[in-house]
Amino acid sequence: MLPLFHELEKSLPSRIIFSLAKRPYRTASFVLFLVLASILWVYHAIAAESFITLFNSGLSTQVFGPGGGRHNGSAPGLHKPVGIPMKIWQIMLPKPRDDGPPHPPDPAQLQDTPSWLVLNPDYKYTLVGERGGIEFVDKNFADQPAIIDTYKRLQNMGMKSDLLRYLLLYIEGGVYTDTDTVAIKGVDEWVPDFIKSEVNLVVGIEFDRRDGAAWAEIPHWLQFCQWTIAAKPKHPVFQMMVQRALYSIDLLSTEVYDSPLDSISPTSFEVMNSTGPAAWTDVVFEYLQQLDPSLEDTKDLSFMTGPRLIGDVLVLNIDGFGMGQQHSKSTNDGTIPSQALVKHLFRGSWRS
Q1: Which of 60, 144, 175, 306 is the one with CA 20 to 30 A from 312?
Q2: How far apart are CA 191 and CA 177, in angstroms?
Q3: Any transmembrane segments, and where (predicted)?
Q4: Dmax over Cα atoms in the chain, in whole Å?
């Protein structure tokens, strides 16, 4: 028993208890001090546990609140905090042929989907196809004919899928993820409980130039990915993104190609800068600047070593959604880093 008591005596609250207990009398004062010391010890233990939770979550010490100031987080209340809706969305649209009907669906395209189902039991999983996409847009945007017309006339499946994911997350919320992604951790683990009620959008980084050279098709110093996005419904960033996409698509049709929308064949660079990750980065960073005016360039988010909360947006570092790449200090040594939530396999079916 002595080693156990010896270890117990090391903490300050325990030393108070032991010093009082060694006195040859039992008084009301001793009882009062004992109660107070016990409360202090419990508080000490809870605080230590909270610190361990914060440390293990991988959150950066640079955590910001809605006004852009330092935010240390708050302990969870009695009720479970409201997080991202328990929904997972994937999109599989038919790949068109130059002549004849579209290519038939390929079951191999969903070979990684089981990882999402197994790690997220009780989540509602929806695979949205061509008919489902049209029905969703017709139902939810009947009062916005520009959205319906643009969606139905788009022939590039990459652009169509991009636009649809923004619309789905705006209306329904949840997690959108490409079919060539593998879930590494369940969605419930993506956001620590003590900030779940504050986080309305989770975004990851796909490219961080850091101190390297610029890439030809990536206009930003740091680029956000949109192969996986998590959000609560009605987030304003999706309104901004849809407006940006509609404007860019119209510009391609009327000025770049001077042709009807359903007859244009955009390049991969045009796709990325109209509806894809380059455009998404423009919009997300503009929103982040509204929350934290000190942000001047995406370069300000370079070299992140852990997630960072800016307003209601949790920005993950490169390993969050972008592990396994040969750049951006992404972990690519064959191991799975502790901060990894998703792995993207880059099959790139949208390019064809």
Answers
A1: 144
A2: 17
A3: 25-46
A4: 98
